[in-house]
Amino acid sequence: MVGYDNLEIRPLCRAFGAEIIGVDLSRPVDDDLYARIYAAFLDRQLLLFRDQDLPPASQVALGQRFGEVQVHVMNQYHADGFPELYFLSNLDDNGEPSGKHPDKGTLAWHTDGSWRRVTGQATFLYSVEVPKEGGETHFCDMYAAYEALSDVMKQRLEGMRAVHNLDFSRSRRHAEDPMTDAQKRAAPPIDHPVVRTHPETGRKCIFLGDHAETIAGLDYEEGRGLVEEVNTLAVRPEFTYCHQWRPRDLVIWDNRCLMHRATSYDSARERRVMRRCTILGEIPG
Questions:
Q1: Which of 112, 210, 249, 254 is catalytic?
Q2: What's the CATH number where 159 sits?
Q3: What angle do CA 131, 132, 138 make, to 5 degrees?
Q4: 211 is catalytic
């Protein structure tokens, strides 16, 4: 593999995450390099590439190496002529901070695409502009979260399925900009196992987050309470990595075994512009 003999995989924290050093993603990713990146992705769950020149077309093309890129049902976030990209920006039409957060749902712990029957495999998030303070992204290890559950809770959750509903999470987090009727029809509620088995590693992990509304087969409020209880149990400081963004960072993570959330920032004074694409995976099992 010419040009990548110095590739280095440097852990970001003890449990998961790695910075990949010595890779220029503006160059074509050949099969050998892709294999090394993907092996690290499965092993470390999250990969960081610093100082990358990644225009929109290149971001989509890189995502396509992993699989089919999702075209998000919330089409108001499409930008740059690429419907595969989800554009998160607080800038107004004049390019100045608007004071409005583009998507408040990102501030709650969630898994991208869990509201689809075929859920998200990987997310590629690229930083164009970042605030001086705030606007970090936290990630939490759902393998570790499952393993830390009591035996009683593991037995209780076995075989349970959660109803994931984008309209539910959108309405309670970002009610001032609700989904349209067409968007709701395109993303009806679906159910997934509360505990899924990762299709490539074979490890069990919790699969919930903010899009999960209730538990199929339970009274709504009982199911709602259980979702909140397990979501709270899942997130512990020792399972969490906080990413401090720099401009031109690319972070790739495995939605099948991580949850994530953004932190707030001064959207009236600071600039934050991010481009995201999500790769479709499989039906959770």
A1: 112
A2: 3.60.130.10
A3: 65
A4: no
